Fold these 4 entries.
Entry 1:
Amino acid sequence: MKIITNFSPNFSKKKREKNEIKFVIIHYTGMQSEIESIKRLKNPKFKVSCHYIINRKGIIVQMVKEKNIAWHAGKSKWQAFKNLNNQSIGIELVNKGHQFGYQNFSVKQIKSLITLCKNLKKKYSIKKENFLGHSDIAPLRKIDPGEKFPWKKLSTNNLGRWYRFNKKIIIKNKKKIRNIFFRNLQKLGYRYFKIHKSSIYDKKVIRSFQQHFLPNNVTGIVDQKTYEISHFLTHKF
């Protein structure tokens, strides 16, 4: 695996131990070009960075050393963790994103990502379910890497969760479906909602889940299939 370096000054002074790294968070750059993305990730004014950026040709560039805390996750929650910069490695994929013309991720890009993630998984003993998207840990603020990101393909390489249908689960009471769905999400690690109380933010959390696990049906509504996927995810693991 060939990696070139182009280091950013944007990272915390405090170094971390190897066993503190528990997650890999995947992002897209969401800017009009690779050059602009790297400029931003190196500019002290913006206070953002990542450990790695992978371009459309599959070239991997390291921007922050793994022992250092890069500023990629921001305000975030997953399971009992908050502000996941401290516990994670951040990987940016060059993609214009939803604002500038969201693209399919290139074959070479995903191939390099899988190779890098396998390496990180082994090096830090990262659990396969701890490969997440930015929108998973910050659903109220972020939508990357988005519905075009191939989570199912990653899961075939033991990177990230996936599900398998085995029978239809029928619950007719819509309120009950909603509450059980959010209970399932809580088990998975999602936060920013209350199980028994609806909120204006619920739709963003649902959309985040659908972008990850049901990318052809990102509605923000807990329909039968969305509910069933949450069931099979929580009952499989």
Entry 2:
Amino acid sequence: MEPGEFNIPRFLAVLPLFSDLSPAELSRVAEGCQVRRLARGDTIFRFGEPCEEFHVVVMGQVKLYALSPAGQEKVIELVGPGNSFAEALMFTSKPYILNAQALANTLLLTVSKQSMLSEIERDPRFSLRLLAGISRRLHGLVHDIESGALHSGMQRVIGYLLREHQADDSATENVFMVSLPVSKATVASRLSLTPEYFSKVLHELEAEGLIEIDKRDIRIVDVPRLAHYGMH
């Protein structure tokens, strides 16, 4: 799909933030949007750059990350299709506090701050939907911080697998599949683990007969046992 072929109002209508807007309102917001096609590795924004918009992933995968003074990378969040980022920061009039990079070929919708302000002025109820969306995102990030602080590395890996799993239609039994959307090193950073420890945990779970690993595809053989193993 090319950016010029993309129907912005139709896409906005299926996002929770915009689902209650009328066709006329969706058209107005769409006028303040831009669709960008990004290749894997392309930078979306860097720390310190002005933030005058927020972004929604249409297709692909985006990494939000911080860099230490020594250049060490810490992945803060992995953003997939249908999810947005930078909407809260946009209203602070402060620059970006993180870096964002496409991890795969990505189609990105950028929504301008001015289009949001104009819609809030027309209908203050729109700001309540915006606040609800930001609150859900903040709650998710707080949950991730709590998990990182209170759970062991093993529990973090198992929690990730259980959150990401989906039914494996090719399996005859109750088997679930997790396809890592990015490299193991990136997932490890997201979980505040070293790549070596992440791999060690995966191999331990495989040795216990709980999962089967095939490159980036991980089959969960026994979900209840895996969840119970995380309680050890």
Entry 3:
Amino acid sequence: MGEKPARGETIASVKKILIYVEGQTEERFVKQLLQPHLSTRGIFSIPVLATTKVVKAGPNFKGGLPAYPKVREEIQRLLRDSSAVAVTTMLDYYGLPQTFPGRNSPQGTNSYQKISFVQQEILQDIGGSNWRGKFIPFLILHEFEGLLFSSPDDIAQTLPNSENFLTNFRQIRASFNSPEEINDTPNGAPSRRIKSVYPQYRKPLHGTAIASRIGLDKIRTSCSHFSDWLQKLEGL
């Protein structure tokens, strides 16, 4: 969290937000796409990787989600940072441990209602009245790769030697009303669908490169849940 605001911005004019992420791909996404975009509004977004394992004689390992009590503890620690105007999360709904509030019995008739329910449960459990307005829980529907299906063409153009698979990526996207609804089953999750077409896909290697090629405008146009979250951050 030692990064500095862009040149020309004074410390007093910059609003700092902390984004709790579960992996290096999401960390790069924040740095490469969200930071430049939000900085134009005087907002400096800092990704904070979840700590998955603490080693007494060495540095902490980062990436992936620890058990929910640890996540709760880490987010509350970030909320106590008085220099931050907001703390938010960027975690995949797919694969989210069942111990997260509301995850084992989400209420609603569609994906958007269910994820809103779980986010609200997390807000109540972690934030409650103590951090009202400062904590903004956000879960990606259904995982990071869902955002990439905002543009099947850019997936094919970014992955090496995958032009012949463009039709496959387009067919996957066409099977759902939106990229965010590509689903929550072990074989149907967005990353599994990409790998079924292109087995060489590696999230840390290819994920942010594809997202950067797509750009925030295309992503938010296709992904309303993501766009709502970004709008909240912009409004800070």
Entry 4:
Amino acid sequence: MSILVLGTVALDTVKTPFGEKKGMLGGSATHFSMAARLFTEVHLVAIIGGDFPKKYIDFLKRKGIILTSLIQDRKNRTFKWKGRYEGDLNTALTLNTELGVLSSFKPSIHKEQRKIKYIFLANVDPDLQRELLHKIYRPSLVGLDSMNYWINNKRKSLMRLLKEINIYVANDQEARQLSGEVNLLKAAKKIHSFGPDMVLIKKGEHGVIFYSDKFQFCLPGYPTDKVIDPTGAGDTFAGGFMGYLARVKKISASNIKNALVYGTIAASFNVEGFGVEKTSALMEKDMRRRTAEFKKFISF
């Protein structure tokens, strides 16, 4: 079973109390892929510029990511993000954003990729997300992520898209903003009424809430005292979550719980290093070991 992810492949510059890294491989699709690849074959749909280092393309290939729909626009520059974390590292301060090739991106996929059943629409313009989704032939499970910018500036497009997907993934701030509710359970119920069968609200280090008509779960975060760089943790979570569901091919209470655990564990590795430093080295045995530790931690 394969999964197809639409998102960004970026060059990130990040500063935290533990150091600064410039021009790192980043982006929503990249972070998602590093976790999802542990469970299933990943097809990545994104765009990069002429300045994108070949070493990063080679790196993604070595990790088994299918890049047939990664477009390179050699006349323009790669999407770049520069940010800084301070204090408890829960919130990034954006210092600079260069859209570059994203401003003219039109996703394109190969004929065989239209048959992929598991789709994740990572954070990009909701019109682009919908455009790609309409290229897919009868998907089995579609996950969607977004951000406050699109909620504010393209709410109509996002609301229309919510009626066409199965799982909506948001952080707590985004869920409150989209729903107009302060209480997260009320927010999940409200967003569910907009269309998606399942709503997943990420609370950073405080865990995750999952809501659907059939079952609801709340899971704490994995307790780690080594938070170096949280960039991409949410996308990594989504990769572990969706990757596991693509492997098991069935939505059930047990499978959702396990998917939430694997997403949580993948994100816990992500924050322990800059960029994809930790997740790119992950093997499934590493996930299983930490998952066993986590289940002991939350059992009673």
